[in-house]
Amino acid sequence: MKNPYQPIEAVIEEIIQETPTIRTFVLKPKELIEFKTGQFVELSFPGVGEAPFTPSSNPNIKERLDLTIMNVGRLTQFLHTLSKDTILGIRGPYGNGYPIEEFEGKEILIVGGGVGLAPLRSLILALFSKLEKYKKIFLCYGARTPKDLLYKDQILQWQKKIGVRITVDTGDESWKGNVGLVTSILKDLPLKMDNAVAVVCGPPIMMKFTTLRLLELGFKPKDIYLSMEKNMSCGLGKCGHCRMGKYYVCRDGPVFCFEEIKDIHDIWE
Amino acid sequence: MEEVIYYLTQENGLRFLNLLEKEYQIYLPQIIGEKGIFCDFGYDLPKTDFRLVKYASSKISDFTLNPYRSIEPLKIFYTLPKEKLNLLDKEERIAILGVKNCDLYSLKIQDYVFLGGEVTDPFYAQRRENTLIVSGDCSAFKEVCFCLALEINPFPEEGFDINFSFLDSGFLVEVGSEKGEKIINDGKDIFSLATTEQISERDKKRREIVKNLNEHIKLHSIPPKNNLQKIVKDGFGSAIWKEEALRCVECGGCNFSCDTCHCFLLSEDRFGNAHERVRLWDACLYANFAKVAGGANPLRYRYQRLRNRYLKKFDFFPENIGLIACCGCGRCIEVCPAKIDIRKILRELSIE
Ligand SMILES: Cc1cc2nc3c(=O)[nH]c(=O)nc-3n(C[C@H](O)[C@H](O)[C@H](O)COP(=O)(O)OP(=O)(O)OC[C@H]3O[C@@H](n4cnc5c(N)ncnc54)[C@H](O)[C@@H]3O)c2cc1C
Ligand code: SF4
Ligand code: SF4
Ligand code: FES
Is the pLDDT of residue B46 over 60? Predict the structure, then answer.
């Protein structure tokens, strides 16, 4: 029987410095890892640790798997010291991913905060491959400062196909765009809320206020999709760490619609 | 399978062990001394504990029959407190004697976790496969036992390979699986068919312990099983969590000694030059159990963690598999240095 806890090897093919604290690691796993956009993997380095990350690359491009990782603690700090050709451990994919089939024929609002744009990039790229199936795609993205904005060049490319609004919490001399939290750009949206879904990913506090704002705008709880971040160890629905109400986030999520979780206590903590 | 009940004399008990020994490493209950537990309500309760240890036939006098459950939870035979995730040597087959019905109930929970879902845990599956469970009726109970409050009988009815009931003289032996049947067939000559009188003696003993245990449990006013999920959910904002958690020292004893608690942490250990995956039992009473990077922690406070344990047992599991993840074994009550008592918490929640 296969050992589900054992990672396979993946070599770092390229490292892209996205922001001062965020790098994208382009990985080539020894065996093909096919994932659905929004699913996650467990990445490890022997003797340092293991943590969940969501691929930020196009799920249809099977040869490469990008993880966009923010330096926040023990493992991620270590990952940021590594160079090309280092071998990491990877297992997965796990979880449900985004139900993109259900988005067909609808308008899609995508709201990202900080490194939360990583899984959303994968979603956007997946949507691009069937662009004609969706009525409209609109991205609202916020980061702390202009320096913290992810995928700047790519966003410029995306702007040719989809609506994009960007904001930063604090600007600098060169910044001419909007200043304010991401909720401040969630107004006068060129969307028909009765046929729109919203997909949100970011830090818990951002997800909370974004959800409240979206409800005010007339989104129904069942049309707001959230990526929940909980402590995870196994990713397989066994270790018990990621429980949220009657769900295991790793198994039943990480993507939930707000309708499913709105009555659970303390979801934003 | 045909329902057949056998009779085994006291003297043939040893021959049964010899039979088992041919195929299995046996674990048997051993007394571990007087603990001086007494019941506040006047019941004269036994003062001894039992643990399940490796049996060597030369030392049979060290072993005994346990009238109630062992100190360690049965799960310890299936997932170890800390283990390298390697498959076992195929030959390692064990027979566990002295398993009680609370333990068998808990195995349903552990099975759901480790055998159920999209991925089967191969280590657990292998141990489960290689283990023969020889359970027994309870002939006494501990002060902390409250299985009956959860509608779990103090005698096994399913989930065992072989079950023993203790008569005044000898045993009744019931077969619950093909694995069990094979053992009995191998030793046909030491078993005889049970008589109707012997079966009524067993049933009488069972009724007796049910009656006594029910009286004992009544004194604790544990709410009815079917209300527990609602009581625990509705008690989310209750003051009891904070009151009780004040004394908790975060030892994790309640989690580790619990028959149904299953949470674990994947980690690594250095073995020579290599790092290998290990799995450790984890405890939701520990401060970092739910912490995520950046410092967010939905179980930041001790009272949240204490409450989490109850929500997991009385809400998550009923929602997912229709079973409460508590078997009433009382191990968490016994082990807790803070004297946090699950019976009291359930009672107080039901009063509110
Ligand atoms: C489904 C999912 C997808 C994620 N995707 C991304 C992503 O694409 N990019 C990104 O930068 N970050 C992502 N994260 C967050 C990322 O997992 C954490 O930043 C990472 O675990 C931090 O590890 P650390 O050792 O550097 O942090 P530390 O703060 O030093 O350690 C955190 C400790 O908690 C444990 N832990 C378990 N689960 C988590 C968790 N969810 N968050 C934090 N710690 C956890 C870690 O194993 C570690 O022991 C995701 C989290 C989840 C749950
Ligand atoms: S919660 Fe306590 S009484 Fe219930 S199964 Fe666990 S240890 Fe036994
Ligand atoms: S056994 Fe008692 S003191 Fe120890 S963690 Fe559990 S509740 Fe806290
Ligand atoms: S991460 Fe182990 S159960 Fe979800």
Answer: no
